[in-house]
Design brief:
The protein has about 300 residues and is of the alpha/beta class. It has one domain: Ribonuclease Z/Hydroxyacylglutathione hydrolase-like (Metallo-beta-lactamase, Chain A, 4-Layer Sandwich), CATH 3.60.15. About 25% of the residues lie in helices and about 25% in strands. It contains seven helices and 15 strands. α4 crosses α6. The protein is globular, with a radius of gyration of 19 Å.
Length: about 300
Amino acid sequence: MAMTQAPLALEPLSVQAFFDTATNTVSYLLVDPDTRAAAIIDPVLDFDPKAGRLSTASADRLLAAVAEQNLNLHWILETHAHADHLSAADHLRAVTGARIVIGEQITQVQKGFGDLFEADDVDPDGGVFDLLVRDGDQIPLGGRMIEVLHTPGHTPACVSYRIDDAIFVGDTLFMPDYGTARADFPGGDAATLYRSIRKILALPPRTRIFIGHDYLPAGRETFAWETTVAEQRAANVHVHDGVEETDFVAMRQARDATLAAPTLILPALQVNIRAGALPPASPSGRVFLKLPVNAL
């Protein structure tokens, strides 16, 4: 009788986290060890708002890790158009040739904020990104597949990326002792956020959840960014099992009403709707970021 050979087991996915202290952002380098194929999630472009000065130091740490490990960077995965940091996606694409991926609803965000900034160069068709994805799409990474989950609520374009036993949720969820994302940005909605979170928490209990930010709540001494579905369902202070949608929405709306706008929201969004690129230079060769007054 002929024997059927069992498929070879894949080496465990490598997840390397890079924490940016200025914006409390976690960027991730994902590596398929069998093929050295890699992807980067939510890279940060450093920006000093007081001096109007840019730096690629954070992105260069990621590039150094790619070079040191002899990786082939295929993808730059954005979970959404961030309001709290500038994206380094365009810089990484220019250096490596990797393709930038974002949820297809980015067109809504481009339309709204393109109008706000009177950004005539921004076509609200997502064309400055390389690949627009929707719920259920799959992206190859070596011998693995990355599944896309549309998880709106924080913004309409939010997506999460699931690979093997891990899911990268951007700002949708935080660590259990901190809670959940705000839902008061344009296109955000607390009820939609609740349903997206429940979609994530319906995954197997041992699924590892990697978050996009950590703000070190009182009572915890070290930053953290990895949790599990089981931990979130048992202990998330905003949305543990037993919290109904109506209660969550009331809590989220009341909390959001007390929050100030993120420090970098205006510079960040006019860069991030351009996939991390700066606005076109003026005739003098200078680049300006706009500050619309009383318009947000």
